[in-house]
Amino acid sequence: FADTVICRRRVVLVVIFNSPFYKNIPFLKMLYGPSFRGKMVFYGPFAEPRYGVEECRCFMKGHLQHRCVATAMERYPGFDGYLWIADDSVLNVPQFLLDTDLDSLWTMKADSYWPLGSYVKIFDWPVPQNWHWEDPIMGITQVLSAYQILPEKYKQRMVSSIGASASVATAWSDAGYIPVKYRRDFIEMVSIFENVTFECAIPTIMRLLCENVTKELVEFNGAYLFKVWPDVTAPILHPVKLSQRSKRSKVQSWLSDAYRFYKNKASREGTTTLKRQCSLQGLSAQHILTNNPQ
């Protein structure tokens, strides 16, 4: 392939570090920088000026990632959207830009690996075991507190948006995207669910933001590297430990194949998405992906 995919929207890309593996940042900039020219923000458990890492309040080892997303929205207004991804995940850039409507919310859904199902009723007992649900700091106690102060309009949406009344959604939440039109409401909702673990807070908030969830929300399955390396249509990979040189090489190869696949797909089919939100012009993706920062 000859070209990378460039996002025409002014998108803030937020990379959230659960642990301070900040030496991976030059590699991440090589992967994402040419496509996302709005702004890249790095959050972690502590600031590191050498790598441009900002501290996110009360980080809790990554379990409160929604706070980081809201913080980015507050610090960097005036952009078209906000995309986040965990540092141990890899975004399929061409898949996201060519196959995703950037006017819609984009979030992960509960898949076959997820232990809880797509939602949990708040007042059902006993609560699910072997997950953060039991955690006194960010589990059911905090969910109940959030529900008590949740505006009535959001409680009324729970049946249509989540699947049951007095319920919260649960899912993997290692990546997501929020168009600017939801920015203020998302910040407000994070202030309500700020102490709830992100794998409950984020899917709940994303669904409750929707007046019509089928029209406003795009759900996707990630590819979890427990058995085999996935095909090039997987929206994200997780977990990927980029401190390991062998994993970087696999990521490069996988993304190279993905760029080639989606470039050919766009050339064959043509898309309104391509004209509206991204282009296939610009820097050589081969150059981007073969440079491997130490």
What characterizes the major β-sheet? 7 strands, mixed
Figure out the total of helices: 11
Biggest sheet strand order reads 4-3-2-5-10-7-11
Mean of residue pLDDT values? 85
Low-confidence stretches: 282-294
What structural class do you assign from the helix and strand content?
A: alpha/beta
**E-strand count:** 14
User: What is the strand content?
Assistant: 15-25%
- Helical fraction: 25-40%
SSE series: EEHEEHEEHEEHHEEHHHEEEHHEH
Task: Please give the oligomerization state of what you see.
Answer: single chain
What is the overall silhouette? globular
Rg over CA atoms: 19 Å
Structure description:
- The chain is of the alpha/beta class and 294 residues long.
- Helices cover 37% and strands 17% of the residues.
- The chain has helices at residues 25-32, 65-75, 93-99, 140-149, 152-161, 183-192, 198-208, 213-216, 245-269, 272-277, 285-290, and strands spanning 6-7, 11-16, 39-44, 53-55, 81-86, 90-91, 105-108, 119-121, 167-169, 175-179, 217-220, 223-224, 236-238, 278-279.
- A 7-stranded mixed beta sheet has the order 4-3-2-5-10-7-11.
- α2 crosses α6 (183-192) and α3 (93-99) runs parallel beside α9.
- It is globular.
